[in-house]
Amino acid sequence: MTDTADAGPKAKRGNRAGKGLTVERIFTTPGVHPYDEVTWERRDVVQQNWKTGETIFEQRGVEFPDSWSLNASTIVTTKYFRGAVDTPERENSLKQLIDRVVLTYVRAGKEHGYFAADQDAEIFEHELTWSLLHQVFSFNSPVWFNVGTKSPQQVSACFILSVDDSMDSILNWYKEEGFIFKGGSGAGLNLSRIRSSKELLSSGGTASGPVSFMRGADASAGTIKSGGATRRAAKMVVLDVDHPDIVEFVETKAKEENKIRALRDAGFDMDLGGKDITSVQYQNANNSVRVTDEFMRAVEDGSSFGLRARHSGEVIEEIDARTLFDKINQAAWECADPGLQYDDTINAWHTNPESGRITASNPCSEYMSLDNSSCNLASLNLLKFLREDDTFDAATFQKVAELVITAMDISICFADFPTEAIGQTTRDYRQLGIGYANLGALLMATGHGYDSEGGRALAAAITSLLTGASYKRSAELAGIVGPYKGYARNAEAHQRVMRKHQAANDAVRTLDAMDSEVHRYATKAWADVVEVGAENGYRNAQASVLAPTGTIGFMMDCDTTGIEPDFSLVKFKKLVGGGSMQIVNQTIPRALKKLGYQDEQIEAIVEHIAEHGHVIDAPGLKPEHYDVFDCAMGERAIAPMGHVRMMAATQPFLSGAISKTVNLPEDATIEEIAEVHLEGWKLGLKALAVYRDNCKVGQPLSDGRKSAKSEKVEPEKVIEYRPIRRRLPKRRKSETTSFAVAGAEGYLTAGTYEDGKLGELFLKLGKQGSTLAGMMDAFSIAISVGLQYGVPLETYVEKFTNLRFDPAGMTDDPDVRMAQSIMDYVFRRLALDHLDFETRSFMGIHTAEERARQLETGSYTPAETADDDVADELESYSQSVGATTRREEDAPAESDAAVSSAAVEPDVRSGSGAADTRAVSGEIHSSAELMERFQGKAADAPMCMTCGTKMRPAGSCYVCEGCGSTSGCS
């Protein structure tokens, strides 16, 4: 094994006599502040609800680096800037936000003895600032909400509560959940201590059972809006598989889903957010069953399994394990609940068993620890560590992980907590949750299929290095500021789990130079973890999880969230001043180049993806490369077991678990869900949730191609829509253009309707009666009939421009100086004559005057809208759905009409030409809705309650691309 240099801030490997961290530089330059290394600009942020048109947010003159996307700056402005809008107290610069957080961390680090000297604190400040400024990582949302403000300094997003079998405890559960939801976070708990409805009370009556008390908690959660926002609370409810009420718990939400269907068929509004959905119970929580190895073995063997009384532990009922397992799978098939949590696996990796078992998780199932505890999260942006030569910078990745885990631990020193019990447990055990985002984009960019051995090997090595580096720093911190208070009684167990992680790292089989290099650093890190930890102990009981990274993923301009693959190959972007476009993911050209394709091939493949939304039959793309571009949705969606195998590859290197849902197609069977649940257990996962498309009324996935037998009600009428031909009037205007391409002369006649829209064309080439003239007449008739039946001219322009055949070369047209064929010239000329500026700009077609203006001013914008300020403003575009963002210094008081009518030039950075951008329908407001157009299906996601945009999956939650709202913990 090759030794590696110490990474990141260094600590003495001794006892508490250590003098603090000596911090080394990673990115920064001595004597230069990170803010001085970037170019800043002022922008206006205006956000609207797409359903109502109502302006829901407006702040002008916010300051961000010019490298930040408009979407990222919009979400940070709306979500994280503190202070009332339109008051002097309101933050208006990213500098203020980062300083508010970072300086609080640095102050606390100094006060609690983390740094060897003031110089080290300053370097720590600059490195943390640089990393946040350049989107290398992000803390979880509560940090941005609360740190450095007058509000309580809550830094945790994930909470686990506890409840006992008493009315006082149950009512206290309701109250504690309410305070956590009010603060914008989520909570989970296990209800298994509550006596079942089959057991007696001390008074002689029968107990209500946990399911009855879930009704009260659900109603409470449904009325509390998280953090003052419009999204509902996020919560997790867990019940042990041996609880006597387990069957009732398993079937609870499935029965409610049947009720929803009945009410829908009766005419009630049962969609998510519908006015009648509130009458249905248990919809505010995710439900999970805690299964044991004993139960799963009984399922395999087909034997019986005992349900036990809560107080005495005696078996009060014997059931067939396979029958109960079938009920779990049936319910998950019907409504996606319950998920499974594998109790013995979770507790086998528990570093603090002497302090109590792990019984529950947070709402998204990635944080699993002691009752009444919390975890603050941070995630690294993996693409930031991919060098220009497509190698992964493992050394810098380790340094940043150590820097971030240090900051996360410091935050516990000053953090506030919603209850004293949670605060005490968190301060005693100091659980942290470092993770990452952009794994799917990283794998694609490096030519790895998500469901491939190479993809899993790289993901495993990166995850191992992340957690190894974090525990290495935790052991070093223990030598400076002491181990966590609960370490002494759990030292043996904690060290045993560290050796388990190390053994899992040794079992990783690398396949290429990239994952081998990462694995080499991970192996060295785990050796240090075991060695230094044996001497110092550890500062943190837990170090890592894989969270959804919804809102902070947008803050970091990530293409993919958490451990997820890419959502789809084509993304939706909103344009400044109105309009929208689809754009092929920027990762795809890089991946194709990595796979050895040439620029012309890349352009053709990207063009195919832009039109079809998938890579199947893309010209020149080898079938063996298809899997590199497989996504969560679409024609080549990753198979369910592909998701399970990726989770299994990374799970042994995480303190906690993974927030992820395994999606199955609508026609998946109950047996297939059972296979996923069994394999998740066998492969060592800690938790698993499935979602079968179209299993919920509130999130329909309706496929127009599905068979009639799947519909309960046959339609009375079948209406067939056919295109209608709009014939030209007998007398119509036409224009004839003579042209020459490489000396070959011809005539183009274009006839129009009264409104000026093109309706016919005639091409005259060669002598009358010749074969060429006959072919041109037939071609002209075909194009003309298509135009009259409604085929858009831009479709023909896309298809016929860039066709190459002789004659090709110079033309006599000053606007089209070179043509690759006569067809190329003809349709470029038609585009210039009959398409608006914005549409043809997407295709890269401009007049000679526009090209000249671009050379002079950097803008193609026509003369009537060529005011430099307006043009500069309009040539930026927003990724935000529903957000209009402009540069302040270039924004005089133009009218809304001027802005909306002006042309927009997209920023095409992929190097694949204009083929990767095109206009989309005004009815499309998100990537999820864009996928509907490609698939012919309604997107399987709820609508955002803030801005009305259709959300998309992020881990086991949903995230809005427009405003950054999430359906779960941040």
Question: What is the element layout, followed by pairings?
Answer:
Layout: E1 40-48, E2 55-65, H1 70-79, H2 94-111, H3 118-133, E3 137-139, H4 141-146, E4 158-160, H5 167-182, E5 186-190, H6 210-223, E6 235-240, H7 246-265, E7 285-291, H8 293-301, E8 304-308, E9 315-320, H9 321-335, E10 339-342, H10 343-348, E11 373-381, H11 394-414, H12 420-429, E12 432-437, H13 439-445, H14 453-481, H15 487-506, H16 513-536, H17 551-555, E13 570-574, E14 580-584, H18 587-594, H19 599-612, H20 640-650, E15 661-664, H21 670-682, E16 687-692, E17 734-741, E18 744-752, E19 758-764, H22 771-788, H23 793-800, E20 809-813, E21 816-819, H24 822-834, H25 837-842, H26 848-857, H27 868-874, E22 883-887, H28 896-901, E23 917-919, H29 927-935, E24 952-954, E25 957-959
Parallel strand pairs: 4-5, 5-6, 6-7, 7-10, 11-12, 15-16
Antiparallel strand pairs: 1-2, 1-22, 3-11, 4-11, 8-9, 10-16, 13-14, 14-23, 17-18, 18-19, 20-21, 24-25
Helix pairs in contact: 2-3, 2-11, 3-11, 5-6, 7-9, 8-9, 9-21, 11-14, 13-18, 14-16, 14-20, 15-16, 18-19, 23-24
Task: Give an overview of the whole structure.
This protein is of the alpha/beta class and 970 residues long. It has a domain at 734-860. Helix content is 38%, strand content 15%. The strands form 7 sheets. Strands 3, 4, 5, 6, 7, 10, 11, 12, 15 and 16 form a 10-stranded mixed beta sheet that branches. The protein is globular and about 100 Å long. Residues 1-17, 226-231, 699-716 and 863-915 have low confidence and may be disordered.
